[in-house]
Amino acid sequence: MIPTLSPEQRKTLDEHNGAPIVVIDPDRQQRFVLIADTDVRVRDLFAESNESGSWTAEKEARRRDLIDKDIAGTITVEERAELAALDLQGNQHYDRIAPRPIEGARRLHQQLLNRRGQQ
What we know:
Blueprint: H1 7-15, E1 21-25, E2 30-34, H2 45-49, H3 57-72, H4 77-97, H5 103-118
Antiparallel strand pairs: 1-2
Helix pairs in contact: 3-4
């Protein structure tokens, strides 16, 4: 699912002429960066995310470095965009090579439903 922009976010993006903007989730006190897909820093994100076999040890190492910087609070806007791209690529890679087992979750769900029905 891809969420849509609110009118307030669209207005802010327009006011910044396409430059990245930071939005805050007040409940979680977490910041997010909105970057247009035409921005040079993320322009290739969608093309790269569809390549098969494109995940490398170098990308994984870079992703880990960026996570460390994020935790330390020293990550830049550009690096945060890079981390988002690497997260997407890594998740897609691992979903292809080792899909999450769903059958065990289905059995557990059914057992819980059966127990609730017996109460």
